[in-house]
């Protein structure tokens, strides 16, 4: 396990360890009562703005969709910080202009363009974003063996303003998959939110038949790193092919069609998915290993 503050100091050099531990929460926090938080309308709103009191207002959250690959990109920002620092999780090259335009309209400062893993079905937008906004740093797991500015490991924290994402290693769909989880603490959004990439899809999960995939490992990853989160944790997948947008730990523990089974049954299900290979796999994987930008670009070779 990596010391929790190791990468927070590494990724945000201006933030001291002490400041990271004792990130101040606003004195004008007005907590929502527990009973109010149980009302369905408030739960529905949590998909767009998570947390209680000041922490809820600090987090700006958008779920964005790329329809050709059915990929979700997530935008999170700390709008309680004067600079409004933001992160993008799993941007797609085709929708980079849409995402950067939104970031500009909202007055955010994009700090990190992050991937949950080396995608096989689309080209990541992280390299293109870096060419358009040179200050932005790309982030991916060290275990992915891909190129990026920052390599994260299990237990690392990625700060944007006073908010942070905790890194949980969730291999199985690919060897280098991670899940990003909003911070645990009174000054962090509640309920927590987990960005699962392709480890966990709503009522399903990522396939395990290439890129170092392993159904055994995926089962362990989801059960140990995602299903152990608080049951009200909001789960945001990397894709959805059925029209779902968000789930919770409680829902998936009860209803996930694959991961509610015992491990041997799960492995049999995964061995018999019989899915066609992603159409773009031969282009996407080599491109994503170098942040989506090939050097020199394919057209000039
Ligand atoms: N048809 C799509 C690829 C669909 C696919 O294989 N999706 C992956 C995630 S992207 S590698 C997956 O894990 N699916 C699990 C499932 O149960 O569908 C294309 O050709 O791009």
UniProtKB/TrEMBL annotation:
InterPro entries: Metallo-B-lactamas (IPR001279), Mito_Persulfide_Diox (IPR051682), POD-like_MBL-fold (IPR044528), RibonucZ/Hydroxyglut_hydro (IPR036866). It is an enzyme of class 1 (oxidoreductase). SMART domains: Lactamase_B. Residues 70-239 form the Metallo-beta-lactamase domain. One of its GO terms (molecular function) is metal ion binding. CDD domains: POD-like_MBL-fold (cd07724). It catalyses: S-sulfanylglutathione + O2 + H2O = sulfite + glutathione + 2 H(+). Its EC number is 1.13.11.18. GO terms for biological process: glutathione metabolic process; hydrogen sulfide metabolic process. SUPFAM superfamilies: Metallo-hydrolase/oxidoreductase (SSF56281). It is found in: Mitochondrion. Its cofactor is Fe(2+). Pfam families: Lactamase_B. Keywords: Acetylation, Dioxygenase, Iron, Metal-binding, Mitochondrion, Oxidoreductase, Transit peptide. Its main location: mitochondrion. This is persulfide dioxygenase. The gene is LOC102722159.
